[in-house]
Amino acid sequence: MAPTSSTDDGPAALGPEERLALLGVARDSIRHGLEQYRPLAVDPARYPASLQQERAAFVTLTEEGRLRGCIGHLEACQALVRDVADNAFAAAFRDPRFAPLSAAELDRIHIHVSVLSPPEPLDIRSELQLLKVVRPGMDGLILGEGLHRGTFLPSVWESLPDPRQFLAHLKMKAGLAPEYWSELIKVWRYTTESFGE
């Protein structure tokens, strides 16, 4: 098992056993949701210390390579193991882009977990400056202005590898025009530790 103590760079990476535990909790929470219509109630004390830490996570579901649900938190609000259980349930049954998952789909979905680093605010004044500091393939971004807010996980770089396209699509996700820029826009970046079934 990987070390579970924090380092100056943030929490230590999760080991294979911890990753398997989170994937198992995610699938169990979806199965529980099909039967009980609510997420699996997990007791963080029954899991390794690294999974008891408050950390933010996203759970992504795919079916035959296509997105089937994706829900998560951008900021830590509860134990990681509980966050994964809640987000797995929400991705399966509460993602407004999809109908609730059916029992027939359970064995066809693949589960992917992304554990986020704490978001880091970027001191940028222009879109050009942002394009110079963003790290394609590594950074997830949160972009917001007023009530408009959107995020792309680092995995989105796989389908949008060009930084300008990535940013234009992120602005659209936030409800802004792709060419829009304002000095009021705020941007944060984060990285993820991602793994799946």
Tell me what you see in this structure.
With 197 residues, the chain is an alpha+beta fold. The chain is 29% helix and 25% strand. The protein is built from five helices and ten strands, in the order E-E-H-H-E-E-H-E-E-H-E-E-H-E-E. It has helices spanning 16-36, 49-52, 80-93, 127-133, 163-173, and strands spanning 6-7, 10-11, 57-63, 66-72, 109-116, 120-122, 140-145, 148-152, 186-190, 192-196. The strands form three sheets. It has a four-stranded antiparallel β-sheet with strand order 4-3-5-10, covered by helices on one side. A four-stranded antiparallel β-sheet has the order 6-9-7-8, covered by helices on one side. Helix 1 packs across helix 3. The two termini are 18 Å apart. The model is unreliable at 1-9 (pLDDT under 50).
Strand order of the largest sheet: 4-3-5-10
Beta strands, count: 10
Rg on CA atoms, Å: 17 Å
Low-confidence runs = 1-9
Proportion of residues in helical segments? 25-40%
Estimate what percentage of residues fall within beta strands. Answer: 25-35%
Q: Based on the structure, what is the oligomeric state of the protein chains?
A: single chain
Q: How far apart, in Å, are the first and last alpha carbons? A: 18 Å
| Mean residue pLDDT | 93
Number of helices: 5
Q: Which secondary-structure class do the elements indicate?
A: alpha+beta
* Main sheet overview: 4 strands, antiparallel
Rough shape?
Answer: globular
Please specify the SSE layout and strand pairing:
Blueprint lengths: L5 E2 L2 E2 L4 H21 L12 H4 L4 E7 L2 E7 L7 H14 L15 E8 L3 E3 L4 H7 L6 E6 L2 E5 L10 H11 L12 E5 L1 E5 L1
Antiparallel strand pairs: 1-2, 3-4, 3-5, 5-10, 6-9, 7-8, 7-9
Helix pairs in contact: 1-3
